[in-house]
Inverse folding.
């Protein structure tokens, strides 16, 4: 198990005389979605993939519930979640400025054990990244092959499969919908694409 990386030149403004110092950058191997992680957890335990997904959905709900009440949540081996605020200046009807607070986001501090697990991974220098782009015909064929094998596909799987941007993946999926090869089910992050009947 190793993390692939490459060396990249750090841009230096033209008026500076110091030398460019290379920096290491991880070469992403893709993004693994919930469905994939549920499958992997199921394979290494006695819990079904559907049960794992159910637990994750319940965890998401209850974390949102308690974070919304101002609690912090610590999950052993994962990290520490806490709600954050931000301040903004507004003007009232009399033209006076006042400072208001609003909920901003949720901050995450990674658990030490998880950091150490990742730090133990080996590094593999990749001298040349394969940047060969697939033609649209190849990308569409890959998508349909994936649908044949797994019954469905989503945007992130499409991006990973064809090593392309979100925009390109959505454009390819739209073309397959327009040509009546695929139909769209759901909306937002839950959108899936299946073979047209």
């Amino acid at each position: 198990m190793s993390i692939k990386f490459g060396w990249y030149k750090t841009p230096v403004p033209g008026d500076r005389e110091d030398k460019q110092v290379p920096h290491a950058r991880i070469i992403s191997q893709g993004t693994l979605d919930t469905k994939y992680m549920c499958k992997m957890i199921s394979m290494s335990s006695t819990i079904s993939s559907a049960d794992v997904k159910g637990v994750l959905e319940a965890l998401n709900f209850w974390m949102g519930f308690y974070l919304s009440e101002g609690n912090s949540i610590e999950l052993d081996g994962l990290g520490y979640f806490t709600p954050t605020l931000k301040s903004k200046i507004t003007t009232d009807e009399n033209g006076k400025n006042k400072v208001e607070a609003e909920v901003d986001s949720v901050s995450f501090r990674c658990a030490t054990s998880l950091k150490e697990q990742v730090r133990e991974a080996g590094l593999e220098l990749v001298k040349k990244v394969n940047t060969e782009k697939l033609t649209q015909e190849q990308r569409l064929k890959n998508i349909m092959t994936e649908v044949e094998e797994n019954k469905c596909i989503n945007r992130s799987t499409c991006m990973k499969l064809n090593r392309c941007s979100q925009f390109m993946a959505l454009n390819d999926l739209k073309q397959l919908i327009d040509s009546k090869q695929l139909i769209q089910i759901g909306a937002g992050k839950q959108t899936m694409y299946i073979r047209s009947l």
About this structure: The mean pLDDT is 88.
